[in-house]
Design goal:
Elements (H helix, E strand, L loop, with lengths): L3 E3 L13 E3 L3 E5 L6 E10 L4 H4 L1 H13 L3 E5 L3 E4 L1 H17 L3 E5 L4 H11 L8 E5 L3
Parallel strand pairs: 4-5, 4-6, 5-7, 7-8
Antiparallel strand pairs: 1-2, 2-3, 3-4
């Protein structure tokens, strides 16, 4: 299952804006920056066995683009149907990069989806030790 990037345009004065990441089973849609945040809405089912190869480089490029432009990065998981434990590991690696990059990462999820609540509870444990990380509930 390979993912591809769809062109989403470039921002003036910064590195080229990353495109949305589209696979046969999921989309990491890049939305317009608003209110100081670059937002990626996650849709579908992420079951990649090796998201460190398929998804992590893309998420790192989003992080670089947002932080270089003085924006926070917002991952919206509310519409996501599933992701596996390998994807959690990728998110943990990104979370550990926040302090060195002096950026902000917000992760929002739907607490009515028990699997999202469980996964994001794990990620929220890093809030106390990682400045710039926010994990928040958003009810659909």
């Amino acid at each position: 299952m390979s993912a591809s990037r769809q062109d989403a345009g470039a921002s003036a004065g910064r590195s080229e804006r990353p495109a949305s990441l589209v696979s046969s089973s999921y989309t990491l849609r890049l939305d317009e920056a608003e209110g100081g945040w670059l937002t990626s809405s996650w849709l579908g089912r992420i079951g990649d066995r090796h998201p460190s190869v398929s998804i992590q480089p893309y998420l790192e490029s989003l992080m670089d683009h947002a932080f270089e432009g003085g924006l926070g990065l917002h991952f919206r998981l509310e519409e996501l149907q599933h992701f596996n434990s390998s994807t959690i590991a990728v998110l943990v690696r990104l979370i550990h990069r926040i302090p060195e990059r002096q950026g902000k990462l917000r992760i929002t999820f739907d607490p009515d989806k028990s699997w999202q609540q469980m996964c994001c509870d794990v990620l929220a444990r890093f809030e106390a030790s990682v400045p710039g990380l926010e994990v928040r509930e958003i009810r659909s």
